[in-house]
Protein 1
Amino acid sequence: MADDDDDTVYCDIQMPLAQGRELLELVNALRESKAHPRLDKVFEHMQYELSNSNDNNENPPTWGTSCQ
């Protein structure tokens, strides 16, 4: 049972890379519009997470992939 004092919402969403790019564009536009100031920090976190995830898919790290 959840703690009644915790009102934090968690969201873990998986999508194809193309949708991740599109969602990032949408979040960027929403944040830049300043139409939802109470969500600015949420948009900022979404931008960070989507940017990192998209970048890791487009440019996977090379460390640990070479055989010696």
Protein 2
Amino acid sequence: MERFNYQMMTLARDARELTQSELADRLQIRQGTLSKYETGFSEPPASFVEDLAEALNFPRSFFYVSGRPYGLPP
């Protein structure tokens, strides 16, 4: 089973130079909800990942890469 990698979400958002609030606005969700997904506190629904991939212009599969991105804190 694929597992959402919240660290890749942070990496993608940072790559697009967006704040959590800016991305939440694009996705029409609350910033607090986005924060829970980005910290791994909550597992996002598949529909969110589709919207996220489109909003950040990354392939959906990017958010399911296993492991921790090099250079990010543990």
Protein 3
Amino acid sequence: MKKEDDQIKAYMGEDTVFNGSLNFDGTVRIDGKFEGQVFTDDTLIIGETGNLIADITAGTIICMGLVEGTLMASKKVEIHAKSRVIGNIK
């Protein structure tokens, strides 16, 4: 069983709006609006209502919402059927 999905360290809810830079260890899920940059070696989950305008550098990116920007993942990028990604994936 993978440890990265069993525990979310931080959660930004649907009504959350955040601008800036986000650095973290562990798994973070964003269901709100985020604009800026994300840096982690771990997992970022963009929920169904998540709306990100960001450059993301992560180990694993799981996208179920809308992302506009550059996604760079060292392990994997998972894009679900109802999500939208506008930008580059590396």
